[in-house]
Design a protein that fits this description.
- By secondary structure, the protein is mostly helical.
- The protein contains 8 helices and no strands.
- It starts with 16 loop residues before the first helix and ends with a helix.
- The N terminus is likely disordered.
Amino acid sequence: MHTSSVDSPPRPEHRTTAGLAGVLALCSVLLLTLVATRWHPLITADGDIAATTHRWAVDESGVTQVCRILTDWVWDPWTMRVLCAAVVVTLVVRFAARWTALWLALAVTLGTLLQQGVKAAVDRPRPVWPDPVDSAHYSAFPSGHAMTATVVCGLLVWLLHGHGVSRAVWRTALAVAVVSVAGVGLTRIWLGVHWPSDVVGGWLMGTTVVALAVWAHRRWQP
């Protein structure tokens, strides 16, 4: 990173961030509506996929244990928030980028509040199994793990891309982010604590938050 450019990321001329955020928001609302109204094709597909992956999880105990470690420690929402907090401190202390640090903290906080609000409003039950391989609390939709990973990884990758890191570093960070976001969603389905649409909803809402946050940064940065 370069100190002088931390609060002034380049603006890609080819990308309409506001339009992308609008499309993502519409997709999120559509999926939310289908889940809330218990649209039969979606509920049936969720049940079929969840039953299949749960059967695999019971049979493949070694893979299931790896998934539990990844989802409970590496990709846990609190791990992501601690990572974000470390970046916020670095932006303030090392780069004196207080506005960007505040923006990052607010974006992640608002994403968490949105996630919890939707969970409470929809109040979707989690899958219930006679032989569970893991447990989770609170309502199912959207997946908090998937949404938090999407928001944190998305914002951090965007910051790296816009502030002068080498191409190799950015590509590595992008690969880690993609694996993390996809991986945490798949582990939640594998462990039988989320329906597939919960994870897709977390990805969609998380990406929407990222797009809105990027738009806000470009529009209101000092």
